[in-house]
Write a structure and sequence with these properties.
Helix 1 packs antiparallel against helix 2 and helix 4 crosses helix 7. The strands form three sheets. Strands 3-2-1-5-8 form a five-stranded mixed sheet, with helices on one face. It has a five-stranded mixed sheet with strand order 4-10-9-6-7. Strands 11-12 form a two-stranded antiparallel sheet. Strand 2 and strand 3 form a beta hairpin. By secondary structure, the protein is an alpha+beta fold. The protein has three domains: 41 residues; 110 residues, Cupredoxins -  blue copper proteins (Immunoglobulin-like, Sandwich); 102 residues, Cytochrome c-like domain (Cytochrome Bc1 Complex, Chain D, domain 2), CATH 1.10.760.
Length: 303
C-alpha cells in the first residue's frame, strides 16, 4: 500500500512542478517578448483563440479527473481489507497501545506480524481520541472511544517500524510510541507459539460469556427469550422500530453495553446493560467469540 500511496504522491508533485515551471517560463518569455520598447508603442489588439481556450479547459479537467479516480480507488482499497486478513484487536489508552492476537498472544506498544500477510486492525480507545500511525506503511487512522475503527496493511519487508500516536491525547502524548515488528513466517510462528500464554480470544470470550450468563438467553439451549448468537455476525437484523441494521462489531458492542438502544424485533428489552461492568479487552473477547460462532456455522454448512 505504501508504494501505491507514494506513486500518487509523486504524480501530484510532478504535475505541480511541471505546471509551476511552465508558468514561470511563459511569464519570463512573455515579459521579454512583449516588453514595451518605446513610450509611443501600443500593443496590437489580441482576439481569443477557440482551440487555446479548449486546451486550457480540457487538459486541467482531464488531469483532475485522473487524480480523483486514482485517489478514490486507492481510498476504497485502503478501507476494505482482503478476506484472508489476520484480525488483531488494538485498545488505545493513555498512554499505551494494547494489542490482542486471536491466538491469545498479547502485547503492549508492540505488534508482531508476519511478512506478506494482510493484517486487519480492529481498534477502539478506552479514554480519549488517539491516532494509530505508522509512517513507513503510510498508515494513519483515528482510534475513537465508544466506536470501532478499522484499518489494514500488508508488510512486504521484514524489520522494525515506528508506531506513533498522531493525535494529542494528554500530557504524555509524546511518549505513546511503539513498534511494528515484521517477521518471516517461520519466525512469526515461533514467536506466536512462545507468547500465546493466555487463552485464545475465542476461548476467553466463551468463558466470559458463560460467566456473565449470556448463554442462558442467547445460547443453543436458550428458550427463545433472546436471538441466538450463532451465525449472527454480519447478518441483517430487523429492529422493533422497523429499521434494518447489520450485526457488525459496533452493533454487537452497543447491544452488550446498552441493549435497549436497538431492540431486535419480536423480543422484549429484558437484557441488563453491561456498561461499566466489562473492560474494552473483555468486550473485544466477547465480540471475537460471537464472530467465531458465525465462522463455525459457515464451516458446518460447507460440510
Amino acid at each position: 500500500m505504501a508504494a501505491r500511496v507514494d506513486a500518487l504522491f509523486f504524480f501530484l508533485v510532478g504535475v505541480s512542478a511541471f505546471f509551476a515551471a511552465l508558468i514561470c517560463i511563459v511569464i519570463v518569455a512573455f515579459v521579454i517578448k512583449y516588453r514595451r520598447r518605446s513610450d509611443d508603442e501600443w500593443p496590437d489588439e489580441v482576439h481569443g483563440g477557440m482551440w487555446l481556450e479548449v486546451m486550457w479547459t480540457v487538459i486541467p479537467l482531464g488531469l483532475t479527473l485522473v487524480i480523483f479516480f486514482w485517489g478514490a480507488k486507492l481510498y476504497f482499497v485502503s478501507r476494505h481489507a482482503p478476506p484472508n486478513s489476520l484480525e488483531v484487536t488494538v485498545v488505545a489508552k493513555q498512554w499505551m497501545w494494547k494489542v490482542q492476537h486471536p491466538e491469545g498472544a498479547s502485547e503492549i506498544n508492540e505488534l508482531h506480524v508476519p511478512v506478506g500477510q494482510p493484517i486487519k486492525l480492529m481498534m477502539i480507545s478506552q479514554d480519549v481520541i488517539h491516532d494509530f500511525a505508522v509512517p513507513a506503511f503510510r498508515l494513519k487512522q483515528d482510534v475513537l472511544p465508544g466506536r470501532y475503527t478499522t484499518v489494514w496493511f500488508e508488510a512486504t519487508k521484514p524489520g522494525e517500524y515506528h508506531l506513533f500516536c498522531d493525535q494529542y491525547c494528554g500530557a504524555q502524548h509524546s511518549g505513546m510510541v511503539g513498534r511494528i515488528v515484521v517477521l518471516p513466517q517461520p519466525q512469526y510462528e515461533t514467536w506466536l507459539n512462545s507468547n500465546s500464554v493466555a487463552a485464545p480470544a475465542m476461548t476467553s470470550g466463551e468463558t466470559l460469556s458463560r460467566k456473565l450468563g449470556c448463554d442462558t438467553c442467547h445460547g443453543a439451549r436458550a428458550t427463545g427469550r433472546a436471538p441466538s448468537l450463532v451465525g449472527l455476525f454480519g447478518k441483517p437484523v430487523k429492529l422493533q422500530d422497523g429499521r434494518w441494521v447489520t450485526a457488525d462489531e459496533s452493533y454487537l458492542r452497543e447491544s452488550i453495553l446498552n441493549p435497549q438502544a436497538q431492540v431486535v424485533a419480536g423480543y422484549q428489552p429484558i437484557m441488563p446493560p453491561f456498561k461499566g461492568r466489562i473492560s474494552e479487552e473483555e468486550m473485544a473477547a466477547l465480540v471475537g467469540y460471537i464472530k467465531s460462532l458465525s465462522r463455525e456455522e459457515g464451516e458446518l454448512a460447507q460440510k
